[in-house]
Amino acid sequence: MARRYDSRTTIFSPEGRLYQIEYAMEAISHAGTVLGVLAKDGVVLAAEKKVTGKLLDLTGAKAGGYGGSGEKIFLLNSNVIGGVAGLTADANSLVNFARSAAQRHLLAYNEDIPVELLAQKLCDMKQSYTQFGGLRPFGVSILYAGYDPHYEFQLYHSDPSGNYSGWKATCIGANNGTAQSLLKQEYKDDILVKDAIGLVLRTMSKTMDSTTLSSEKLEFAVLSLDDDKKTPKAKIYRPSEIDALLQTEGLIKKDDDAEMKS
Length: 262
Prior knowledge:
The protein is α+β, with helices and mostly antiparallel strands.
């Protein structure tokens, strides 16, 4: 009997559940951790990279770039950064949709898209995939770190069902329960970006599956406000910059320190 409710996303079980959505959420709970913290003067995102093969060509990642070069953190618009947990192929599709939606808004209204509106547009698309027969939901959750002049810095989370919510600090992916507990203990409403960076890195070091923390296994981004232009400034860190941050926070182990010096 259970298979009858598994095969299509549109069929509710007798308990009123959509099993395909629950399966998608379960897949995300095993994905690499993505963590976001909202500060008074910016938003900090960090993500665990799962693809760390020795033969992987990381030339582009080492060169870096404004648009990011990893698999977990993407620049959606000049005022919005997205962190994704789940199926990377699904994430790429949604990232392209989000970028197009942001550019259409810019063309129509000559202003950057508000963060919540961008989250809504993606959630509308996600929700449609839970409603039409024969389509599986997107197997990805997204954290949106953004800025707009009306509500300033914001942090949103959306899941495969099309639900979204605003957060001060949150985590998606593996070990998210442990990360949430740590964030509840240490987060303060008046936290600044420099302190949020330390909080994020310390939390990631305790929740990631890896025993060591390095730029090979971590992506990092900060959205802040340019002091001169008063416009949002997105910075997706390069590997060397991530290692420098980890060293500043004292989170690189001695073996890693020796490798950096050599």
